[in-house]
Amino acid sequence: MRLILLGPPGAGKGTQAARIEQRYGIRQLSTGDMLRAAVAAGTPVGQKAKDIMARGELVPDEVVVQIISERLDQPDCAKGFILDGFPRTVAQAEALEELLKAKGIRLDAVVELEVDGSILIERIEKRARESAGGPRADDNAEALKKRLEVYHAQTAPLIAFYRDRGLLRTVDGMASMDDVTNQIVSVLEAA
Ligand SMILES: Nc1ncnc2c1ncn2[C@@H]1O[C@H](COP(=O)(O)OP(=O)(O)O)[C@@H](O)[C@H]1O
């Protein structure tokens, strides 16, 4: 099973990806988590990404494409994977298409979590208050506003991109967490 989870910040991609990982024994690949790990470790990629991420902007396409390309070659992705937070631009989606073609891999589905803009800010502020390790560098009002703008300008066009390819499946991200999981599972069983 190979899928992409698509949706705005705060839509619940991380939560659902972790559940799908458990259920199907496939790997969750979160570019946000990978970049945060690189920042924490102070690697060259992390040094490059740190300030960009804190502002809520996107790190350059070639950086994340390279990270994902290498990650997909790891043996733990052989059974499948869930891309969470990637692709985030049409250029990334095109690069992914090329990459998968070269690796001889086909996507099964792109699952869009549809959530009203009005509740996203509320959800992320709640996450910032409740996160054990303290809030993320980009979970503040200014970066959040920027992340939502970036989503609408750069990532939302991927909905049409994948609809055109017959891969898009939309689920109601406003339902309860369990209900959203069930919807995703039905979509995957049908794919
Ligand atoms: N595919 C990507 N392309 C560019 N930047 C990315 C990508 N994935 C993550 N990032 C960077 O990491 C930040 C956090 O991403 P993520 O953890 O997916 O957060 P969220 O979905 O909650 O906004 C993004 O705002 C961006 O700066």
TrEMBL record:
Q: Where in the cell does this protein reside? A: Cytoplasm
One matching Pfam family is: ADK
Identify the pathway.
Answer: Purine metabolism; AMP biosynthesis via salvage pathway; AMP from ADP: step 1/1
For the protein in the UniProt heading, the enzyme class is transferase
Give the start-end ranges of region NMP: 30-59
GO MF terms here are: AMP kinase activity; ATP binding
Cite the binding residues for AMP: T31, R36, E57, L58, V59, G85, F86, P87, R88, Q92, R136, R147
Which EC number(s) does the record attach to this protein?
A: 2.7.4.3
Keywords from the named record: ATP-binding, Cytoplasm, Kinase, Nucleotide biosynthesis, Nucleotide-binding, Transferase
Subcellular location, principal:
cytoplasm
Q: What's any GO biological process attached to this entry?
A: AMP salvage
Q: Where does ATP bind?
A: G10, A11, G12, K13, G14, T15, R127, A175
Q: Does the keyword Nucleotidyltransferase apply?
A: no
User: Can you cite an annotated GO cellular component?
Assistant: cytoplasm
Among InterPro entries, the record links this protein to: Adenyl_kin_sub (IPR006259), Adenylat/UMP-CMP_kin (IPR000850), Adenylat_kinase_CS (IPR033690), P-loop_NTPase (IPR027417)
Residues spanning the membrane: none
- What SUPFAM superfamilies does the record point to? P-loop containing nucleoside triphosphate hydrolases
Reaction(s) catalysed by this chain, per the record, are: AMP + ATP = 2 ADP
Similarity field: Belongs to the adenylate kinase family.
Q: What does this protein do?
A: Catalyzes the reversible transfer of the terminal phosphate group between ATP and AMP. Plays an important role in cellular energy homeostasis and in adenine nucleotide metabolism.
Known partners and oligomeric status = Monomer.
Domain text from the record? Consists of three domains, a large central CORE domain and two small peripheral domains, NMPbind and LID, which undergo movements during catalysis. The LID domain closes over the site of phosphoryl transfer upon ATP binding. Assembling and dissambling the active center during each catalytic cycle provides an effective means to prevent ATP hydrolysis.
Provide the protein name. Adenylate kinase
